[in-house]
Amino acid sequence: MSVLNFQHMSTKTFLRTFAFASIFFLSSPMEVTSAEKMTLGFVITNWSTAMYETLFMDECSGGPTPGNYEIWEASVTPEVRRSYPVLLFSQLRHINNRGRNGLNVCDHPTSFDDPSLEIIEGKYAYGANLDGNKHGRATSTSCEHKNFTGLNGEEGIDNQMYRLMGCVEAWKSYGHIENNANSHRLSSGLGMILIEVTDVENERNDESVSVSFFRGIGSYNLDSTGNPLPYASYGIDHENGRARYGDTVMGKIVNGVLTTKSADVHLPFFGNYQYMNQLFRDMQLELELSDDGEPMTGLITGYYGVDQFYSYVRGMLSTFPNRHKFSCPAIYVAAHQLADGHPDPETGECTTLSSAFNIQAISAFINHPDYD
Question: Per-residue pLDDT for 301 more than 70?
Fold first, then answer.
């Protein structure tokens, strides 16, 4: 059948054939860059902390962690509580300024001793063995910590981010924090992550490919139901002739699964009205490639900076402390206690948290600007 003969095609076959035909006109998810090599393009449509969740939160022996509002409410008498105006901004002032001498507890998280954060005590977690140690002992790049077991029985899984946030109900898969963030990204296009795979000789099995990460500009292309359309075109955010993002790592494709080698990678982020230039240490990507424009699932693992993460938490709680069901002091203390990666050369204290994030992606056209 000719590439341009669309008669009697199914919708999926049409989309796939159209994408292949487009290689003659613009940068595409299957662009032929030489006689043998192709380029694949993807856009991430969903990003969330990888949470292993049981029906009754058995992984949290102490139940869900208390929130900022509950802690403040329990610290005052009913008479005092009723004496405060019900107005939102009055509540925010009292909830935030619980520190010594009225200090803001998010700006000064050590100024007040909140109840300890409830952390994950369960056995299982998503993630990867990032430090190469199956027993949680300290290495040259990690601090001693408790390992998890993977859902398929893998030993030595490192995921302290899950241990930190897994008992925060608002952070779970059914909670509002990451659902809000994904919804805001989808509607605004902010923090859009593009993935480009080059030097591909075979899209099912290839021993060596290059994988680059960019920030997209513009909005997501959505269908009439609000779902992202496959094979839409996205431009790269750039300034003065250079892409703002563009870290490249080596990878491979085995039986249709793309994986990358461990490397430090910068990724854009937007969520809950917070912007960040994220640095992932020792990041690895695993993405199950699909045909015909179907959504793809994947996992990003690596180490996430404690200070970087707390900046995100602080920004959320400073704005809406009565909604997010956790407190700045509790998060701050627990995050530093649980940090397991990249010890500070002077203090020996670890500065990053092993982490895992679930992603969804679809095929996309990635258009490079003319920098000349």
Answer: yes
pLDDT at 9: 40
Task: Tell me the CA distances in angstroms from 105 to 230, 260, 295, one per residue in order.
Answer: 44, 40, 42
Q: Tokens standing for 68?
A: 């900022």
Nearest alpha-carbon partner for 162 in 153, 152, 172: 172
Write down the pTM of the prediction.
0.86
Q: Tell me how far apart the alpha carbons of residues 68 and 94 are, in angstroms, rounded to a whole number.
A: 11
What is the largest distance, in Å, between two alpha-carbon atoms of the chain?
A: 80
Tally of CB atoms within 10 A around 101: 7
Instruction: Enumerate the domain spans of the chain.
Output: 44-190+252-362
* pLDDT tens digit sequence for 134-189: 999 999 999 999 999 999 999 999 999 999 999 998 899 999 999 999 999 999 99
| Per-residue 3-state assignment (H helix, E strand, C coil) for 105-169 | CCCCHHHCCCCCCCCCCCCECCCECCCCCCCCCCECCECCCCCEECCCCCCCEECHHHHHHCCCH
Res 19 pLDDT > 50: no
